[in-house]
Design goal:
Pfam families: GST_C, GST_N_3. This protein is α+β, with helices and mostly antiparallel strands. Helix content is 51%, strand content 7%. It has a 4-stranded mixed sheet, covered by helices on one side. A hairpin with a 5-residue loop joins strand 3 and strand 4.
């Protein structure tokens, strides 16, 4: 069985967990506290970031983007019309563009600061960068959520899914990031019905169930986190 080194509230890890489930693949989950800089993990990924996917033969693929590309190259054709990275070059460009939007821009502006300040710092020592949360960073991230929801709505006004007519990596990446923010109770769903309806569709997929059962020690999720009719 393959192995996925991940962190429960790492959105990039959640993206790959969703992708693996959509591929019908099982992987052993190994939780990695990246701030501990564990030597064995750094040997798999010198960047020291999650996720890392390791095949049973020992091949290690680090990073959400490379893992997604690797899974498509090695298993994508078997999905036929359910392929998460479409065959057409223009369609593939759009999926990759949105992957960058969510895995880079959304993460830098929202998920990264919120998870660091509200979660990771609670488990990190002072030397590792732990301590009280920086409230200005949290307020900025919360404010940024709104325009990203509006962008999702703008995309959905013209498409069935974020990148086009079919479910793709773009939807899984966006939902993975929003699931982390939703766990923390920082998504104003009441302000955007279109984005909320799209997220409900993703949230209802079998691939999403394991994410909804995740719990952080000493930190319960928002009241509606695992409610499919939120």
């Amino acid at each position: 069985m393959a192995t996925l080194y991940h962190y429960s509230l790492c959105p990039h890890s959640r993206f790959i967990r969703l992708a693996l489930a959509e591929f019908g693949m099982e992987a052993e989950l190994v939780e990695e506290r990246v701030w501990e800089r564990r030597r064995e993990f750094l040997e798999l990924n010198t960047a020291g970031t999650t996720p890392v996917f390791q095949e049973q033969n020992g091949l290690a693929v680090p990073g959400a983007g490379p893992i997604a590309e690797y899974l498509d190259e090695t298993r994508g054709l078997a999905l036929a019309d359910r392929r998460l990275l479409p065959e057409g070059p223009g369609e593939r460009v759009e999926v990759r563009r949105l992957l960058d939007w969510f895995n880079i821009k959304f993460h830098e502006e929202i998920t990264g600061p919120l998870v660091l300040e509200k979660v990771m710092k609670r488990f990190m020592s002072r030397d590792e960068g732990g301590g009280p949360p920086e409230m200005s960073a949290i307020r900025a991230a919360r404010a940024n959520v709104r325009y990203h929801l509006r962008y999702i709505s703008w995309l959905l006004a013209k498409r069935n899914w974020l990148a086009g007519a079919r479910l793709s990596y773009a939807d899984l990446a966006a939902a993975a990031h929003l699931s982390c923010v939703d766990y923390l109770g920082d998504v104003p769903w009441e302000e955007d019905e279109a984005a909320r309806a799209w997220y409900a569709r993703i949230k209802s997929r079998p691939s999403f169930r394991p994410l909804l059962s995740d719990r952080m020690p000493g930190m319960a999720p928002s009241a509606h986190y695992d409610n499919l009719d939120f």
